[in-house]
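Sample intake sheet
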Amino acid sequence: MASRRTAEDLIGEGRVTVDGAPAHLGQKIDPTVATVLIDGLPLPVRPDLVYYLLYKPLGVISTSEDDRGRTAVVDLVPDDERVFPVGRLDADSEGLLILTNDGDLTNLVTHPRHGVTKTYIARVTGVPDRTTLRRLVGGVELEDGPARAERARVRSTAAGEALVEVVMVEGRNREVRRLLAAVGHEVISLVRTAIGPIRDPDLDPGSWRLLTMVEVRDLYGAARAAT
C-alpha cells in the first residue's frame, strides 16, 4: 500500500485504525483477524486473500465449475487459493472479471445498492439516436422488471452498426443485451472494459494479473462513495 516511511506517516497522522482504535508505531497485530482501516477504508491484511483481474475470453463461463465440462474462469487463474468470480459475464461476452476469496469485496461490487459501476462496449445493429440513448438511461421494462443504464453514448459508427458504451450498476442475466434489444438494437458483441475504477487495456483474452492493494482500496472506496 505504501513505503515503510509513508506508512509511519499515515500512522502518525492518525489515519490508520486497528479494530476501531488508532494504530501506533511498533504495534503488532494478527493479520488473520485484525480489521485495519486507512482513512476509513479497509486494508485487507489476511495473508490468504487474493485478487485476480482476468480478461475473460469468449466461450468461457463465469462459474467456479461446470458439470458439462466447459472451461470456467477459475480454470484460467492459479489454484493456490479457492476463488470465486465477482459477478458474471455471459459465455458469449468477454472482458474484465475479478476473482477473489474476499467475500466483503464481492458483496460490495456485485450488489446494486453499493453502486459500483461496470462499463461495457457493445457493437450493435443500427445506430442509436439521442432519444434512444435517453431511453436507455431513463429505463425500459424487461420481462424480469425495469432496467436502466447509468450512462450511454455512441462511441463510433460504421456500415449500419455502432459501438455503444453502456455503464451499468445492476448485473442481471444478459441485462445489457436485453436492454439494448428492447430499444431496437441487437448486440453483436459485448466487452466489459471496466469494473468501477479498474481498467486494463493491456490484458489479452485469457490473461490475468493480481490487483494492486491500491486498486483493491479503490474498489472499496468506490462502493463507499456510491452509498
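Comment: Residues 17 and 23 are 5 Å apart (CA to CA). The longest strand covers residues 187-195.
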